[in-house]
Amino acid sequence: MVTSLHVCKINENLILATRRREPPYPVPDKLSLGDDVSVWEGQTKRYIQRFPADERIDLILTLLSKEVFSKLLDHGVPEDVNSLFALLRRIADSPVAEVDRQNEFYVRTQAEGERLVEYLSALRRLARLRFPEEAREGRESRILSRFLAKVRDPMAKVFLRLQPPKDLATLESTSTRLDQTGGGMNMITPGIFAFRPR
Questions:
Q1: Residue 168 structural domain
Q2: Which of 35, 39, 43, 38 is nearest to 60 (CA)?
Q3: What is the DSSP letter of 120?
């Protein structure tokens, strides 16, 4: 027979078990060419410790961008975690990767399904890597120009041509609103965004 004392004891054990649980460690970003591999490696090593050893290599592979994963496949996937990290460092630090980093800013376009804010963030990261010595104003001017030239969202293209942003802060604000509304704009009241029924 279950008494109220048993129920209290069970509840107490559940509360203690819940308190002992550690909060989940955030999933690291995917490793892309041009990223700081040592920072990514440190975050990833800490993250994968929470998983069984036989799942760690597969888990690391899910944390690679398509470009890095493709280059890794050219070399072959190592059998142990330490060898995998060593190979990823070589791939990311190779002269070819440096050339890719330098050119990627110029060839990067908005990817299929990529939100405007994500595309802007990618251009900012690439500009920091490509032009580390350039003054902030010059780098922001480059980012703004590339964004306006290479954005692929049709509604965003039209809107940004009608009302070109004067700086990155304005572009970010506009991009956020366009992302939230699916790119539709209420033409009756300029500056107000809404979904337009089709």
A1: 97-181
A2: 43
A3: H
